[in-house]
């Protein structure tokens, strides 16, 4: 399992004789068995308590009862469910997949069972690893978008402050209120300084040298 | 307080809504320069605008869009509900093209960009009231 993290596995089987064998196989593959359940109907509740990475559930014969049980487990379990079948049944597998089973393994001879569990758990670990990376990327993107939005909001606030102050200055001037106009112009000037200061800080954080910023801030000649 | 269809000799009551106190004071002065208009109240955010409009039932609401708590844009629909006779004149720093479609869809009667001179503000308010009166007096078409 080099390069792939070990899993916390819940094992449930209606056949007690298979429970111990499954636990040995899983442990032998280097994973941790978090719980063993004989009563398959308890699986959902145990996953809520133990929070395993995956549940390996043996359902006995591939019957309607097992399908109902799988629906119940999948809808209530706090982790993906891998079904363990006594024999392959294509129709049952299709139905179980549509009800949300992550994968299935046919319970065969111990040595075959070991390789089947090994491959399935490896695939699951890879899937989980990829999903984790994907979720981390989504989270990073969300945080980045939030940061940009906060910046835009701040810039808009500053622009609105300038616009507001200039509008007051203009209206005061129109109404022949010189002092109020002058006061508003000073506010507009202060708001403008804040915008420039903020832009310079942001560009400075991005590593743009000060001399470039000063050169770029000069108006271009026609 | 009069309403949108009040008689011509009653001054048109204007509720001035802007988060900037200096702007509110100046708009009050502008409104006061017209004998047909009178400032009846002020509000500094969208929530206060709704409360004042409910209480005062002004003829005109002069409404800034960018205000704290609840913005003018967010308050617009509720203002139409709490003061249905009031004509809402939006006065905003946002360019008309950016906000026009939304504010008119929400029921604004007119839109003024900040920086408009006093006469333009007066004329816009008076036109909004005159249009409302015109609509109210139009005879009902018989089936």
Parts with pLDDT < 50 across at least 5 consecutive residues of chain B? 1-6, 139-143
Sketch the major β-sheet of chain B. 5 strands, parallel
Helix content of chain B: 40-55%
Fraction of residues in helix of chain A: 55-70%
Rg of chain B to the nearest angstrom?
14 Å
Total individual domains of chain B:
1
CATH class of chain B: Alpha Beta
Write down the CATH topology of the largest domain in chain A: Rossmann fold
What best-fitting shape of chain A do the alpha-carbon axes yield? elongated
Number of strands of chain B: 5
The helix/strand series of chain B, from N terminus to C terminus, equals EHEHEHEHEH
As for the number of domains of chain A, it is 2
Structural class of chain B, please? alpha/beta
* End-to-end gap of chain A: 67 Å
CATH superfamily of chain B: Response regulator
| β-strand number of chain A | 5
- The overall average pLDDT of chain A, rounded, is 82
CATH superfamily of the largest domain in chain A: Response regulator
Which two chains share the most extensive interface? A-B, 15 and 13 residues
Task: Report the span from N to C terminus of chain B.
Answer: 35 Å
Strand percentage of chain A: 5-15%
Outline the structure in words.
The complex is a heterodimer of chains A (222) and B (143). By secondary structure, chain A is of the alpha/beta class. Chain A contains seven helices and five strands, in the order βαβαβαβαβααα. Chain A has a five-stranded parallel sheet with strand order 2-1-3-4-5, sandwiched between helices. Chain A is elongated, with a radius of gyration of 32 Å. The model of chain A has no long low-confidence stretch (mean pLDDT 82). Chain B has a single domain, classed as Response regulator (Rossmann fold, 3-Layer(aba) Sandwich). Chain B contains five helices and five strands. Chain B has helices at residues 21-32, 46-56, 72-82, 96-105, 118-137; strands at residues 12-17, 37-43, 60-63, 87-92, 110-113. Chain B has a five-stranded parallel sheet, with helices on both faces. In chain B, β1 (12-17), α1 (21-32) and β2 form a beta-alpha-beta unit. In chain B, α2 (46-56) runs parallel beside α3. The radius of gyration of chain B is 14 Å and the shape is globular. Chain B starts with 11 loop residues before the first strand and ends in a 6-residue tail after the last helix. Classes of the chains: A alpha/beta (222), B alpha/beta (143). At the A-B interface, α5 and α6 of A face α1 of B.
């Amino acid at each position: 399992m080099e390069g792939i993290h070990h899993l916390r596995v819940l094992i449930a089987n209606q056949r007690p004789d298979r429970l111990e064998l499954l636990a040995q196989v899983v442990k032998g593959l280097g994973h941790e068995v978090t719980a063993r359940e004989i009563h398959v109907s308890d699986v959902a509740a145990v996953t809520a308590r133990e929070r395993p990475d995956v549940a390996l559930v043996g359902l006995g014969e591939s019957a309607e009862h097992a399908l109902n049980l799988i629906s119940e487990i999948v809808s209530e379990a706090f982790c993906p469910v891998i079904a363990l079948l006594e024999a392959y049944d294509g129709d049952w597998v299709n139905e179980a997949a549509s009800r949300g089973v992550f994968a299935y393994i046919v319970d065969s001879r111990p040595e075959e069972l070991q390789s089947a569990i090994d491959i399935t758990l490896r695939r699951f670990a890879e899937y989980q690893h990829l999903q984790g990376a994907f979720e981390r990327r989504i989270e990073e993107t969300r945080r980045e978008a939030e940061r940009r939005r906060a910046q835009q909001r701040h810039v808009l606030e500053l622009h609105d402050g300038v616009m507001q102050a200039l509008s007051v200055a203009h209206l005061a001037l129109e109404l022949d209120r010189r002092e109020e106009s002058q006061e508003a112009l000073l506010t507009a000037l202060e708001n403008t300084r804040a915008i420039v200061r903020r832009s310079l800080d942001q560009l400075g954080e991005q590593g743009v040298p000060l001399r470039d910023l000063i050169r770029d801030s000069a108006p271009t000649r026609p | 307080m009069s309403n949108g269809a009040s008689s011509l000799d009653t001054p048109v009551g204007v509720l001035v809504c802007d988060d900037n106190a200096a702007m509110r004071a100046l708009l009050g002065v502008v409104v006061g320069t017209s004998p047909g208009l009178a400032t009846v109240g002020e509000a500094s955010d969208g929530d206060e605008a709704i409360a004042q409009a409910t209480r005062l039932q002004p003829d005109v609401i002069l409404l800034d869009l960018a205000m704290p708590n609840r913005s003018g844009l967010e308050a617009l629909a509720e203002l139409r509900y709490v003061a249905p006779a009031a004509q809402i004149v939006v006065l905003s720093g946002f360019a008309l093209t950016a906000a026009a479609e939304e504010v008119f869809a929400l029921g604004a009667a007119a839109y003024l960009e900040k920086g408009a001179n006093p006469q333009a503000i007066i004329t816009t308010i008076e036109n909004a009231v005159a249009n409302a009166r015109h609509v109210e007096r139009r005879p009902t078409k018989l089936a």
